[in-house]
């Protein structure tokens, strides 16, 4: 039986590539999203992968969504915590709302969804969890104390939870993408983007496929000796 995989933020950007690669690998993928119904509909029409709308920062919404997914598709055995947002600003300009939104969406979501699939994974003695961090969580970034803290938190969260899962066949890993060619990065002014690319030894932005291949590798059935690790996929920009 195909294993069920939930990819949060899985209908566009990096998440869409992750969903499609897992689907090609034979996984039964469900892609979640926050509110972009048009993108979700177009994604399902193009790929045949079902989508579900819920807010990953709300524990109650996650609870309801996980119950629905498991009733309709089966137990979630692969979880990719990919949904994320930015609300950039220097400390002078950042307000509490910007802080909370980024912490709750990027890091709180990892707790919410891991908590909700954990008992099931424990009882089946199998699970694959991948949390999408960021190079900016490893190296920090000007104007991103909220995002860097959330992503850095993901890396600590991953190492701690990996220790709890190791004896019961659940692996928990993180991927730290560098700058990937998505809407999030294309929103950066062109001159700034060129400066960013100049700092990437590989000489280009990453692609969503570059990240998706890492997820396939870490979630393979026979990847059970890899846990608690952070896979940096950044073109050599930051060697951690
Ligand atoms: N792009 C990069 O260069 C880069 C680099 C390092 C790390 N990352 C990380 O990689 C992940 C994907 O980035 P991306 O560039 O592909 O992002 P993106 O294109 O902006 O897509 C974000 C996805 O997350 C969903 N989402 C946002 N808030 C949500 C919420 N509260 N509840 C449920 N879903 C929510 C969005 O749903 P809607 O479409 O409905 O809004 C969308 O599917 C993020 O965690 C990001 O931090 C990206």
Automatic annotation (TrEMBL):
Q: Which PROSITE patterns match?
A: ADH_SHORT
Give a GO molecular function annotation for the protein: acetoacetyl-CoA reductase activity
What does UniProt give as GO cellular component?
cytoplasm
- What family does this belong to? Belongs to the short-chain dehydrogenases/reductases (SDR) family.
- Enzyme Commission number, as recorded: 1.1.1.36
| Signal peptide positions on this chain | none
EC class: oxidoreductase
Identify the keywords attached in UniProt to this record, alphabetized.
Oxidoreductase
Lineage top rank: taxon: Bacteria
Domain spans labelled Ketoreductase: 3-178
Full protein name: Acetoacetyl-CoA reductase
BP-aspect Gene Ontology terms? monocarboxylic acid metabolic process; poly-hydroxybutyrate biosynthetic process
InterPro entries linked: Acetoacetyl-CoA_reductase, KR_dom, NAD(P)-bd_dom_sf, Sc_DH/Rdtase_CS, SDR, SDR_fam
């Amino acid at each position: 039986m195909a294993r069920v995989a939930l990819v949060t933020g899985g209908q566009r950007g990096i998440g869409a590539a992750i969903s499609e690669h897992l689907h090609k690998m034979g996984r039964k993928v469900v892609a979640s999203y926050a509110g972009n119904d048009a993108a979700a509909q177009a994604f399902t029409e193009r790929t045949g992968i079902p989508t579900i709308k819920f807010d990953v920062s709300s524990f109650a919404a996650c609870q309801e969504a996980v119950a629905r997914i498991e009733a309709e598709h089966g137990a979630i055995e692969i979880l990719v915590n990919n949904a994320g947002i930015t609300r950039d600003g220097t400390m002078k300009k950042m307000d509490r709302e910007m802080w909370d939104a980024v912490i709750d969406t990027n890091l709180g979501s990892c707790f919410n969804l891991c908590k909700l699939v954990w008992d099931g994974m424990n009882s089946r003695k199998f699970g694959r969890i991948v949390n999408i961090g960021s190079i900016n969580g490893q190296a920090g970034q000007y104007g991103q104390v909220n995002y860097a803290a959330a992503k850095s938190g993901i890396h600590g969260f991953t190492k701690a939870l990996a220790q709890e899962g190791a004896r019961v066949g659940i692996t928990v890993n993180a991927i730290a993408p560098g700058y990937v060619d998505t809407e999030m990065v294309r929103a950066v002014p062109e001159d700034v983007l060129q400066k960013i690319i100049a700092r990437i030894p590989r000489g280009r932005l990453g692609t969503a496929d570059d990240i998706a291949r890492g997820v396939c590798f870490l979630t393979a059935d026979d990847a059970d000796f890899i846990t608690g690790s952070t896979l940096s996929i950044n073109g050599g920009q930051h060697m951690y």
